[in-house]
Amino acid sequence: MKSILVTGGCGFIGSNFIRMQRERYPQQTIHNVDKLTYAGNLENLADLIEDANYHFHRVDICNREALLKLVQTVQPEAILNFAAESHVDRSILDSGPFVQTNIIGTQVLMDVAREVGVARYVQVSTDEVYGSLGSDGAFTEETPLAPNSPYSSSKAAADLLVRSYVHTFDFPAIVTRCSNNYGPYQFPEKLIPLFISNAMENKSLPVYGTGENVRDWIHVLDHCRGIDAALRKGEIGEVYNFGGHLELTNLEMTHILIDLLGKSRDLITYVQDRPGHDLRYAIDSSKAEQNLGWFPQVPFEQGIRDTIAWYQSHTDWVTRIQSGEYLQYIEEQYAGRLKK
Asked: What is the pTM for the complete model shown?
């Protein structure tokens, strides 16, 4: 593809995807559209500011007029929607931004894509739309949607809206759903970067409930490879699941991080469980493996060590987010140094 447009590209997964695309397809032009909310960090892609094939646009995907003007101008062959409010705890405190960005934003983005005639659209979703599993089984693409949090409900609604556009308008969309990601550039409120940062400073590690909730973990680069495979090989109207074949309880993950960092398990503090906390997620990725030729490539032992090392060598990045200084960086870029 000559040109793609990525929404939410300054976030964790989006920025890793853009960097991977620049490495894999150096002749391809990438347009990164991000509103730069609290989780959108220009610093995540600061090394690409002078890249002639990378262009950043500060646009809210809910702003139809601005988005339409941009898409008509740059004429991307494909749009990939990473833009989302994604933190469950925040959705419990206030679901409004999740409904606005995750549902309305998706609707506006698809309407613009239809009007301009974009050839392919990829909706990046989550395994949380399936709800909670018992002790057996795994989510497949045929598992009924049963979301249990405002966040996952907003993502499920967006997925269903995408499905309706495919069937009603022959819209060229694909949906991807993935298990818990880990890796560099993840916002420090998430479990792994939060616990790494806290443990490095000998601060407490707040584990919900008894820590028995189970998650399937995948390295962000494996997820990005899956999205790329869906973009280029996937069939219109299909859903593809991506998982890491690695189930761990939150307590097991906490122990792994503590042990690799050489810290004491006395740092663990058990806190009141999150309301509606899903017990277990597990992904069956066989459809993607068989139809897209995709397989996770990063061994967890290597991936988690590399992730810890990244946060250890990027303490300034974490500190700037925790202090809010990264927001000043964004404003400074817009004061004249950001490439037009």
From this structure: 0.95
